[in-house]
Amino acid sequence: MPVQFAAKRLGKELNKIQNGLPPGIELVSADNLEEWLLDIRVLDNNPLYLNETYRLKFRFGQSYPIEPPEVVFVKQADRPIPIHPHIYSNGIICLDLLGQQGWSPVQSVESVSMSLQSMLTGNTKNERPPGDEEFVRANKQRPKDIEFYYHDNTV
Amino acid sequence: MSGQSSLALKEEGNRHFQKGDYVAAEALYTKAILADPINPLLYTNRAMARLKMSRWDSVIEDCEECLRLSSSSSTSTSGGSSKNFKALYYLSQAHLPLKNYDQAVAYALEAHKICTETHDKSLAAVTSQVLKCKKERWEHREKLRKREEQELEGEVVEMLRREMDGLLKTSSSEDGDDEEERKETEKMYEEKIERIRAVFERARDKENQRRPNPPDWAIDDISFQVMVDPVMTKTGKSYERASIEEHLRRSETDPLTRTPLTIKDLLPNIDLKHACEEFLNENGWAVDW
């Protein structure tokens, strides 16, 4: 796949995004075609996420969208890491559609953001994934290199 | 001729090409051709270096020589025919800056056809070339059209002026006729001219308005580009051939349903292909929407 493939597709995604995103999703920055930041909010009254905004970081490789982007929550003074049984406290997300197996090239920044938004909306468990502390302490790798075990696909 | 074989010369040329020293690469490919003037593949190598040097005319010569040699070598080997697409691809790239738009489009489409048949990995690059040629051809035609319309506007205004002058002259020759009538005629024609200019202006304004996004049916959901060669999966959904093949090489699944899907399952969507072609002919801007 030539290098320009990812750049062209991202340019067009950006064009689309600038015409509007779904409620609760906002573009923070897309200064280059490697890393974008977005903010997401949960729109209903789920007490776990009430009045909070979360920051997402997308990183794209040159084979995007054939290969998935790397997507993590990033912590800022006013942007905590949302609590969820599939989100580690360092921001790494365990979601099959972001994995090598579950990814599809018809997904986009917008659709991934919406999936994460609805993953939060539907959650009632005030907990981190099992082994979170250990995972966060041991993990120095990028999310892409980790083989997740999708222990619970109902969440 | 020195003892160095054409193969060794070509490989040395490739090394220079990789480093970005196209001048040295071109010289070595030339030596390789002198050592073995009937090998068609050497000509595409040199054409590739000459492309980088923007020597469009000599790119065309090399590619045409390559095509001539590979067609005369009777039943060309599989290696030969897969190189042929390169000659066609480079021909397209050389004709485009020379403003030979129709040729650039035609060669890109021929290269696309061969890549499709051989499932070559360059299909995505060739598909982009088709779009690029179509876009530039459209821009060129638009420029001509706009110029013609501007000239037409000038001519129409000029004709009205002349008609008015004629009328004024005849009325003045009848001498003594009232100034009132002359003024009336002048006013009427000025208004007509004003109206003609407004009509042209309105047409231009409409064109300069921000264009909407191209329609979803023309867009491939993987590359987000207007489709050149849409193919359909078992679900009835169509994708650009280059995009879906690239995906299937990585994962043999339908992008929407994740059920098993292979390249053999893809069917060309001819009607959609024609619709996309027609759309692009009228809307070349949609290549870079």
Structure overview:
The complex is a heterodimer of chains A (155) and B (289). Helix content of chain A is 23%, strand content 14%. With 155 residues, chain A is of the alpha+beta class. Chain A has a single domain (4-126), classed as Roll (Ubiquitin Conjugating Enzyme). Chain A has a four-stranded antiparallel sheet. In chain A, a hairpin with a 5-residue loop joins β1 (25-29) and β2. The longest helix of chain A has 15 residues, at 4-18. The radius of gyration of chain A is 15 Å and the shape is globular. Chain B has 289 residues and is mostly helical. Chain B has ten helices and three strands. Chain B has helices spanning 6-19, 22-35, 40-52, 56-72, 78-95, 101-118, 123-173, 179-208, 241-250, 270-282; strands at residues 230-232, 238-240, 267-268. In chain B, β1 and β2 form a beta hairpin. The longest helix of chain B has 51 residues, at 123-173.
Low-confidence stretches of chain A: 151-155
Helices and strands of chain B, in order, run as HHHHHHHHEEHEH
- Adjacency order of strands in the biggest sheet of chain A: 1-2-3-4
Helix-and-strand structural type of chain B: mainly alpha
In terms of quaternary structure, what is this? Answer: heterodimer
Structural class of chain A, by secondary structure, is alpha+beta
Label the CATH architecture of chain A: Roll
Major sheet: arrangement of strands of chain B: 2-1-3
Task: Tell me the distance between the termini of chain B.
Answer: 54 Å
Overall mean pLDDT score of chain A? 87
Please tell me what the overall shape of chain A is: globular
Beta strand count of chain B: 3
- Biggest sheet character of chain A: 4 strands, antiparallel
Domain UBC core (chain A): 5-155
Keywords (chain A): Ubl conjugation pathway
InterPro entries (chain A): Ub_conjugating_enzyme (IPR050113), UBC (IPR000608), UBQ-conjugating_enzyme/RWD (IPR016135)
Protein name (chain A): Ubiquitin conjugating enzyme
